[in-house]
Design goal:
The chain has eleven helices and ten strands. It is α/β, with parallel strands linked by helices. The strands form two sheets. A six-stranded mixed β-sheet has the order 6-7-8-3-9-10, with helices on both faces. The chain is globular.
């Protein structure tokens, strides 16, 4: 579904992404791991159109999407979440979800005057879909809660819910486990697996929690110093000497040899 060819992103003399090439297969849950500063988030930002590449190319379903802005990629079904959740804090959880679909009739001042019936029908349909999403994510008890009052894990679930409001094809999740307790992380993992199995979502996940990655992801891609270091199953990655040296640490390597 996604192919990245020899991608570079430079910030002055710093090569955040330095010739990375990788593929994300349709229907997969692909993990992306690596030490801090490996270029993972920058890679996400380039793929998702938030940053232009210095060179290289990105393809989706065989079509080159290099440098397309986020709103164009949004309409193609490519979405990206962030390590720090972005919610409308003063709006309810339900309202946050209803805001997601674009080109709503009520966005036009003229339409708001002359198409009130259509707007009411759209809002009713959006509310119904949002409630179905909240049921799916097992957070329907938060329907009327202000989004700013949610815990870190609940905000991550809300972000996942946003992707469901537009039937995304591929979702890039950036450190979905950051600041999330183990119980809610399990709930998030369950939702990702269900979306993948039941609705055909493809995922690529940046995460440092190797238990979470091992549970969900196959394959796992490892980045280091802006390059792809290795690709394989979680078991293969955990046994890869180069990965242990670059990411998991010399201490683990020495412990395994002892």
């Amino acid at each position: 579904m996604i192919r990245v060819d020899n991608l570079h992103k430079h910030f002055g003399g710093f090569h955040a992404v330095d010739g990375a090439s990788l593929e994300i297969a349709e229907g997969s849950i692909t993990g992306l791991i690596g030490p801090n500063g490996a270029g993972k988030t920058t890679l996400f930002n380039v793929i998702a159109g938030r940053l232009p590449p210095t060179s290289g190319a990105v393809f989706m379903d065989g079509e080159e999407i290099t440098g397309l802005p986020p709103h164009d990629l949004f309409h193609k079904g490519l979405l990206r979440t962030f390590q720090i959740a972005h919610e409308f804090s003063s709006m309810s959880v339900l309202e946050n979800l209803m805001m997601v679909p674009g080109s709503q009739t009520g966005e036009s001042i003229w339409s708001a005057w002359v198409h009130r019936g259509r707007i009411r029908a759209e809002e009713k349909a959006l509310a119904e879909k949002a409630r179905e999403v909240l049921d799916f994510l097992t957070i329907s008890h938060l329907t009327d809660e202000k989004a700013g009052n949610l815990s870190g894990g609940q905000k991550k679930l809300l972000e996942l819910g946003r992707t469901m409001m537009v039937d995304a094809k591929i979702v890039f999740l950036d450190e979905v486990g950051a600041g999330v307790n183990r119980t809610l992380l399990g709930t998030i993992g369950d939702a990702i697996q269900r979306l993948n199995a039941e609705r055909g979502y493809t995922f690529c996940i940046i995460e440092h929690d190797m238990d979470f990655i091992s549970r969900l992801c196959d394959p796992v891609i490892v980045m280091a110093e802006g390059k792809v270091l290795a690709t394989g199953t979680s078991s293969e990655i955990l046994e890869n000497e180069a990965v242990i040296e670059a990411y998991l640490g010399r201490g683990l390597k020495n412990k395994g040899a002892a």
